Amino acid sequence: MRRNQPFWKLGLVLALIFACLSLQVFAAAEAPPKYIFMFIGDGMGIAQRQVAELQLNNTPGKTAIDQKKRLVMNTLRVNCVNTTYDSTSIVPDSASTATSLSSGYKTLSGVIGLREDKTTVTPYISEALKNKGYAVGIVSSVKIVHATPAAYYCHIDSRNKYDEIAEQLINSKFDLFVGGGGVKHFSPASRKDKRDLYQEAAAKGFTVATTSKEFLAAKPGQRVLANLPGDMNDEALPYALDRGPDDLPLPQIVKKSIDLLSANKKGFFLMVEEGKVDWACHANDTGSTIANMLDLDQAVAAALEFKKKHPQTLIIVTGDHECGGLGLSMGTEYRVNPELFYNQKLSFEMADVKVAAILKNERDPQSGILKLAADFGLTHPTESEKAQIAKALADEQAGLSKQQLNALYGGYRPVSMTFCRLMNTRANLFWTSYVHTGIPVLTTVEGVGAARFSGYKDNTDICKALNQVAQAGLKW
């Protein structure tokens, strides 16, 4: 027995060493991600992802028959489908759905960061991560006080209280805010209380940028509030189809945001919303939907490229809800032709501006409208298409009431909506709605802890899975 004692001791030592190594491996496997990207395509359902991917496989004049080329967001390794209903309805709005994604709680449509009583605060995953030492950035292609971005830093009973949301923004502890337009909510010239929130933000340590050049000049480690030049309504960045040389695409904004936030040694959480996908879907503008979807996808590609050098990264891509009820074919034909949208050179929003200019400046608006139709992709219109455009032009000149516009054109301007309808008919695409739908959305995930997101989930489960993976400490 004594002769076997050394072997018994050796076995015990080896067992202890193995146990310690196993614990270290387990601990390493369970370590939270250092870098977290949360991409939200507002209004982005499965069909929106599908039609954008089809466009990657098309070439002008040639219809794709497969989807061998993939959207980057569709290559992420873990998938789940999640519901989007809120406490109000199966068909939700962006305030409530973003609150579910950011806090893990359902709430009423129009409410941001509060429970159904409109009083009880729902703590955010972004706030919990900031308390853990992460740098936090909030980016959107629409104004930064809009519902989805606001649902990561603001708690308020109405999404429409933009001036008050702006006040909560400058009083937050976060490190980076980037949006398009919305200057009026920060400027004393347009605020009822005449406060200069830019000046107040600067006093609180923010570097304020109101041009693309100023934003790109910001230094890593600086706190930044960037309201980039907006579209003609100063409500968002221009659509991808309408961008000028000084307008920054979302991928470039994301790359710069990564650069700014990476100065924090404890890591960062970056929420990125592509908000104009939703706006294009409301208008049933398929060409603008596709162009902005591809913009979002390249932003996801920037995050995936970052992950190659920083494996402690988690990337989540989801939609807050579907918008428009997009169908990829209609009637009795087995076809879809998104390659036709390569011919579309401007959004419905820009078309509205140009229609107004034609009506104001041209004696014969019919010819000018037909030229504009060609820019929208409606080359060589048929007699039937010309008749529909003429009818829309007459309705435009008649000055229809709001009720008539809603009934005939979904509330949009007659000519631009007719352009959209004719392009969709040519492509054999069909939209069922001008508003949100209750269709579930697809979530794709890659990186540290991604497996926890798989399955059929509710949108609140996305936040709960992230909380678990990041060890953020939220309780429900």
From TrEMBL:
Positions bound to Zn(2+): D42, D278, H282, D320, H321, H436
Sample GO molecular function, one term: alkaline phosphatase activity
Family of this protein: Belongs to the alkaline phosphatase family.
Name the record gives this protein: Alkaline phosphatase
Signal peptide: 1-27
Keyword Phosphoprotein included in the entry's annotation: yes
Cofactor list: Mg(2+); Zn(2+)
Originating species: Hydrogenispora ethanolica
Catalytic residues identified in the record: S94
Record keywords, A-Z: Hydrolase, Magnesium, Metal-binding, Phosphoprotein, Signal, Zinc
Note on how the cofactor is bound: Binds 1 Mg(2+) ion. Binds 2 Zn(2+) ions.
Pfam family name, one: Alk_phosphatase
Record carries keyword Signal: yes
Binding site for Mg(2+): D42, H146, T148, E273
Chain coiled-coil ranges: none
